[in-house]
Amino acid sequence: MTIAISRAGRTFSSMLVAATFAVGAYAADSKSTKETPMSAQKQQVVSLLKSIETGDAAPAASVNPTKYIQHNLAVGDGLAGFGAVLQALPKGSAKVNTVRVFQDGDHVFTHTAYNFFGPKIGFDIFRFENGKIVEHWDNLQETPTSPNPSGRTMIDGPSVATDLDRTDENKRLVLAFVDDILVNGRLEKLAGYYDGDAYVQHNPQIADGLSGLGAALQAMAKAGITMKYDRIHKVLGEGNFVLVVSEGQFAGKHTAFYDLFRVQNGKIAEHWDTIEAIPPKAEWKNANGKF
User: Fold this and answer.
1) 5-36+146-282 is classed CATH 2.40.10.120
2) Measuring CA to CA, which residue among 123, 69, 81, 74 is closest to residue 101?
3) Which of 84, 152, 248, 249 has the lowest CB atom count within 10 Å?
């Protein structure tokens, strides 16, 4: 399910503070025994990403050589653009550790710790067509030098999808949350999406719990930093993991937000994200757009 929703968008950081401080407790992992199988397409994507580190040319055979649409705006279109980036890497410098890989129809999406031109955490989305990769989106953020206030990194935590029979239900829940809270600021609905304060947070600046989120947003408001979600572009999920791709503003810059949520028993239980500024169009190396 690929969804696009436009709204006027609201600056919500200061409004959310009061609502988040009201709630309290802890979060646990899902115990469902239904787990994600490693499909051929998932394996192709993992191998392609690993080839950035190894230099192995074989995984590139999974990419359609005549149709590879690139949405990383720092990379040229097609296989030639991908190859140019690899050639620019100092030999032996790249490291790739894909921690999570999920599939939703013809889309495979991953969560990866990278080291190329510096350490980064990234979400990548690949679209398949007739058995070949034909399109790629990503969102990258520099890896912080220390854990967040709760001692968590941007990439640790559960990595295997469960509750596969609840994928559509979980996607609807997360879409409703992002649309209600992040896009439209309907804060009266906030508590209904969480089990008390049971919220595990991997954002590098924010502690666990809605109370931690409230404290961070209060600090942002005091510093004059605003965050606004304007449009949801994609909602992809497998089991209890749902990735939402959104567009908006952060600290006055045009920004892409990738938010990964883990759902447990019909409530949002855990969150990972990357936030990347979108460069001015004059700096784009392809004409495909970020989304």
Assistant:
1) no
2) 123
3) 84
